[in-house]
Structures are given as C-alpha cells and as structure tokens.
Amino acid sequence: MRGLWVATVDNIDWPTAPSVSPEEQQEELLTYLDLMVEMKMNCIFFQVRPVGDAFYESEIEPWSEFMTGEQGVAPDPLWDPLAFLVEHAHSRGIQVHAWINPYRAKVRTSLLLSCMPQKNSNKGLDPSHMAIRYSEYAYPYGSYLWMDPSAQVILDHILTVVDDILVRYEVDGLHIDDYFYPFPEGGLAFPDEATYAEYVSSGGTLSLEDWRRDNVNEMVQDLGNLVWSHDRIFSISPAGLYRPGHPEGMPPPIVGGDPYEDIFADSKLWLESGWMDWFIPQVYWAIAPPEQSFPEVLSWWLQVSADSAQKLVFGGTAIYKIEPPSDWDPQEIVDQIEISRQEDFRERFSMGNVHFSAKYFRDGTKNITEHFKGVYSKDAAIP
C-alpha cells in the first residue's frame, strides 16, 4: 500500500479554493494523479463527504461549499469530481476509496460556529442538509455542528448515502477516519442527554459512556456489512493511540490521549472483531520519542491484528509535520516506511503506508518528492 489522503474539508488539499474554476479543479486533480504515477503510489483516499455534503452529484445531500463557495450550489459548468477521479485514476492503475465523515455536520472555519448563538448554528446550510432535515438531532458543540450518533434516523441516512455512492460509482472502497463523537472542547458536555434518557427509559442499562461506544460500534458494523454487500473494501483510520497505560491498552512508556474515553471509539474491538478489511491507524509520531514512538505504536496494533482477525495494517504517516511547528526532516517519514517493511512487521501484516496529506507532495515541501523516489523506486501492487 502506497496511499495518499486527499482532504477536501476547508480546502486542505483540493480544490485549492472554492473560487477555482471547474477546469482548474480538474487540472488540480490530474496533477495529483500524475504525481502519484511518478512517485509509484497506488491508492487515493478522496474525501467526498466532509460535513454532510457531497463532492459528487447527489440527490440526497447538497454540493459542498468547499467546492463551489456556497453549499447546495452546483458547479458551473456542471461536472462530477468523483466520477472524474475514478475514471482518470483507474486509467492510471490507481485505486479510489471514497472517504466520508459520518456525523460531522459543520466546521468552525466554514461557519464560525463558536462565535454564533446556537439558534443560528444552521445558518448557511442547504435545505437538503442532514442538520436541517433532522434538526432535532443536530447539536452545536464547541466549534462544530454535530449529529447525534444514537439516532437511528441518522444511521439510516449515513447508510443511504454510502449505498448511493457504491451503487453509482466504481470506487474500490469506502473509508472513514477518526471522527466519531467530537473530541472534547473546553470542558463542554456533548448534549445528548435527551436521547440517552430515552434509551434508559426504554430499559437500557449501559452507562452513558458504554452506550455512546455501542452507538459507534453499531455504525462501524453496519457500514462494513453494507460495503461488503457491494463487494468493496472497507477501511478505517482511527486515532493512533488506544488507552495508554490501561491494562487493555498500550503499555508504558506510551502516554497520551485516549480516544476510547474522549470520542468513544473502541478501535481495538473493531480490529479484533475483523469489522474492516484494512486498518490504518494514524501513527503521527516520530521514531525516537518513547512516549509516542512510531515503531512502538505501530507494532502494538500489528500484534493486536496478529493475535485476532489478522487484518492488513497500514501505518498512517504525518507528512504535514515536515512543516512548523514540528518541522520534521522528510527523512523521518522515509525511515518510518522502512520500519514498516521490516520482517517482524511484515509477518504481522504490515503491508505499506498511507500519507497525510497530499498537498505537501504537490507543493514539493522540503523536496519530499525526491526523498520518496528512493523508498518508492519500483511499482507495487496493493495487497
């Protein structure tokens, strides 16, 4: 696996701006694909649904504001980025995996939610947006607008969106990242007390925390089953750490945040249970620091896979850290790729890497493309 994440939220990687013309947007996508061919990369994870919107022609959700400047407004002249990408990537021997965010409905930088009264948190949303259609389950939270993961209607909507993508586009798979419940902000409690009370009143016995994890577990299982019913690949890229210092988690000296508690993501359970085809932990740390060491964190995940479902594991790398404040030397990433290839890692299903994010290759930041030509010197088939 030599994968590349192309993020569209806030125009991180593509398009460079909503004001860029459709012709220029197409040229930018082709530039990425040609660069991937040159660098002998073989898989693109393309963010098609960052905030309940669409980077493809949809009758279910609105066109993305990050593409056209206004949510719900179609590109003019009309074109379909996902169809365009699939056609031109496949002609170059590159796989395309549609990357969605299930619950996130809006981000601060596009709506300035943190500066707005809650009653205005839906401002700027198209009438077809899920936060309008299911407004009773749309919660302003910190710098976001978030859908309630416990609501069956929200899960059904997500599954309908994914089914539509898999029916109409020849994508090779469906991908989700590390956004489940929102990461805690400023000590704020996620406002799902009403739906939890409904669960308890109907006889539910799980604690609030376990109930939230159960909601996410159900989504992960249902998504996987749906993707497999279409004979496609299902992949997940969760946060890199898992319960540091806990008996069931990563051992000392690894320390750091705990997504199990913070965003209710039991990613170890997902891997042990085999609920995905590809597991791509975001191992966004350098090799040397023992508190969060790339080889130590990746090795722990590999052992979990080897001891259970034996799924392929691709270590996600933090290309973005070659810029300040981290200011890594690109050789750090090259060395991480080499570590991922070590025999002991290979024996435990380490089969490549996925890199975040694409713009650093496009921009040639710190001459990173030249560094990669040494480590990606020959073509590779996706395992």
Automatic annotation (TrEMBL):
It comes from the Eukaryota. The keyword Signal applies. Residues 1-331 form the Glycosyl hydrolase-like domain. InterPro entries: Divisome_Glycosyl_Hydrolase (IPR052177), GH (IPR017853), GHL10 (IPR003790). Keywords: Signal. Pfam families: GHL10. The keyword Magnesium does not apply. This is Glycosyl hydrolase-like 10 domain-containing protein. It comes from Capitella teleta (Polychaete worm).
